[in-house]
Design a protein that fits this description.
Layout: H1 2-27, H2 34-45, H3 48-60, H4 65-77, H5 87-95, H6 103-119, H7 124-134, H8 148-167, H9 171-182, H10 190-206, H11 211-227, H12 239-242, H13 246-269, H14 271-286, H15 297-305, H16 307-322, H17 332-348, H18 354-377, H19 389-404, H20 406-409, H21 413-421, H22 424-429, H23 440-452, H24 459-471, H25 490-496, H26 514-524, H27 529-538
Helix pairs in contact: 2-3, 2-4, 3-5, 4-6, 5-7, 6-8, 7-9, 10-11, 10-13, 11-14, 13-15, 13-25, 14-15, 15-16, 16-17, 17-19, 18-19, 19-23
């Protein structure tokens, strides 16, 4: 009771203080030329007292239109004198609420800022910093488009930024540095991150030279969100410990979901200018990152809406994976990740024609056979799995694709003849034994598919590997990351799901896809985001557990 009474008294005191502060703000008034006299007195005579009081007023008081007009008019009249010693004043003036005032006052502020940075370019970082902070103001998340009030406010900010960059082009470097420094923390909330990304995309429309840099910054931050979303199905922590972080996890998932939505809309609206940039950003930022589960679907979307982009991406991935770029073999981790992306896109993307599947399966098999021949002839052959990491990764990709695309690869005699031409028995039975390091779920599905079609028999080798594993004291580690496993973010998923092929267990043949199942759940529970997220995570996820259904299609593999 005593604690409650104390809280009540504290609350009343705070309300009283707030009321007094509000009354003080109403009574506060600048006199004409007062700000100018204070600034001149400080600049010319170092009168610190009045200047300090002015700074305090700008920090603590919300200015009405009359006070704001006097502040900007006086500041404009002595803008040439606002040197480095006035940097704190400049920062506070730029931080005053101005973007929602009437058109005349906004234009006056615009004139002041452009005059300031023209006369003193060293103030530009503080000016840009203040503008970026305005994009981070808190608010309510929106549906299809932001409210008109927010659009009007942001438009005024972008107008000034565009004018500054047009007048002084070198400020674009300051701008991108400020963007990186001011990008919200991934836990700052959905609205703050989404609004910031929305405005960065807006910025690319009038500063095209910054498009790729801005996209790189956004993708980098989205990857940070992605890696901080815990995979509940693989989490081994005690339930009561994990539940403490569930609210944060759901918040980050929602944030990433809406950020993905903004990026997908950007790719759709400006596909000609953004798709090639995304390919570059993918190679620099996404490709070296292992274990993410959502951001890479931007690439799947890109190759779904542009065939030239698809061919470029698939070709580049194969060049990296096979070490054919002429710059040395490259980092093993990057080559393995490239193989995973290549196999995932060939397996999952609806818009990738099956002719590409045939093309890359053939290339992979030829590369692996050449590698086997080279190791057999080499006098320094090694049994170290790390030494042969690229070979194992490409073999696993072949096994994964044969298992995943079994309905296409074994749909008729011609298709079966193609699979037989890959000479899979040689891969399976070679001394390097790629099945030994292959993820068990892929191994078993590949074995079942190829045995049922009498292409290759793996059971004896699987059993031998199991005995070896049981006798070994070391724990076998498998790379169980499939980068294009089903996408589970519900809002942006409505755009992604139609572009993805679902794995269909050849032993089951379910008609309903996981994506359609997930969509029904979302439509039934539209108002409960957390419930949707939890339910989607309980669904069968991929080939990982070999139970997910998939799309039926009559498309021939050779079409």
């Amino acid at each position: 009771m005593a604690v409650a009474a104390q809280k009540s008294v504290t609350s009343l005191m705070q309300k009283t203080l707030n009321r007094q502060a509000a009354m003080a703000r109403l009574k506060f008034k600048f006199n004409k030329n007062q700000v100018e006299h204070i600034l001149l007195s400080y600049i010319q005579s170092r009168n610190v007292g009045s200047y300090t009081e002015l700074l305090k007023v700008l920090q603590e008081y919300q200015l009405n239109d009359d006070n704001f007009r006097i502040l900007i008019e006086d500041s404009l009249s002595c803008v040439v004198l606002l040197g480095r010693e006035c940097s704190q004043f400049v920062e506070l003036v730029c931080g005053v609420e101005w973007a929602m005032r009437n058109e005349e006052l906004v234009e006056m502020f615009n004139k002041f800022v452009t005059s300031l940075v023209t006369a003193h370019i060293y103030h530009c970082p503080k000016v840009m910093n203040a503008f970026m902070k305005m994009f981070k103001a808190d608010g309510e998340n929106w549906g299809d488009s932001p409210p008109d009030e927010s659009i009007a406010k942001w438009s005024n900010i972008h107008t000034i930024i565009a004018q500054i960059v047009a007048i002084i082009p070198m400020t674009s470097d300051i701008l991108i540095k400020t963007v990186i420094e001011q990008f919200p923390y991934y836990k700052a909330g959905c609205y703050v991150n989404r609004a910031f990304i929305y405005n960065l995309i807006w910025m690319t429309k009038y500063i095209p030279l910054l498009r790729e840099q801005i996209m790189t910054v956004i993708v980098n931050r989205m990857i940070m969100m992605d890696v901080n979303i815990v995979d509940n199905s693989k989490n081994k922590m005690p339930t009561e410990v994990f539940e403490m972080d569930m609210e944060d996890q759901n918040s980050v998932s929602e944030t990433l979901d809406y950020c993905m939505l903004e990026m997908l809309r950007w790719l759709e609206d400006e596909r000609d200018t953004t798709l090639s940039m995304l390919c570059n950003v993918f190679e620099r930022v996404i490709l070296p990152t292992h274990g993410i589960r959502h951001v890479q679907f931007l690439l799947l979307y890109a190759i779904s809406i542009n065939q030239q982009c698809a061919d470029k991406v698939l070709s580049n991935l194969w060049v990296v994976a096979a070490g054919l770029h002429g710059l040395g073999p490259g980092a093993l981790a990057t080559r393995r990740t490239a193989v995973s992306h290549l196999a995932g896109l060939l397996a999952r993307c609806v818009r990738v024609p099956n002719t590409r599947l045939v093309q890359y399966l053939k290339s992979m098999a030829e590369w692996c056979h050449s590698y086997i021949t080279a190791t057999q002839e080499s006098t320094t052959a090694s049994d170290n799995t790390k030494v042969h990491g690229a070979f194992y990764a490409i073999c696993h990709a072949i096994f994964y694709l044969v298992a995943f695309k079994n309905h296409h690869l074994f749909m008729n005699k011609g298709s079966v003849n193609f699979v037989e031409s890959l000479n899979l028995p040689r891969l399976v039975t070679c001394n390097l034994n790629p099945l030994r390091t292959c993820p068990p779920q892929v191994t078993h599905t590949f074995s079942s598919v190829t045995r049922s079609h009498q292409v290759v028999y793996c059971q004896a080798i699987i059993e031998k590997n199991m005995r070896h594993t049981l006798q070994s004291t070391s724990i076998q580690q498998y790379d169980e990351w499939f980068p294009y496993d089903p996408y589970t973010l519900p809002i942006s998923g409505k755009i992604i799901w139609p572009l993805c092929i679902e794995y269909k267990d050849f032993l089951k043949g379910d008609d309903e896809t996981q994506y359609s199942c997930m969509k029904k759940k979302i439509e039934a529970e539209e108002d409960d985001y957390l419930m949707v997220t939890d339910s989607s995570q309980k669904l069968a996820s991929s080939l990982t557990n070999t139970v997910s259904p998939g799309f039926r299609t009559s498309e021939s593999i050779f079409v």
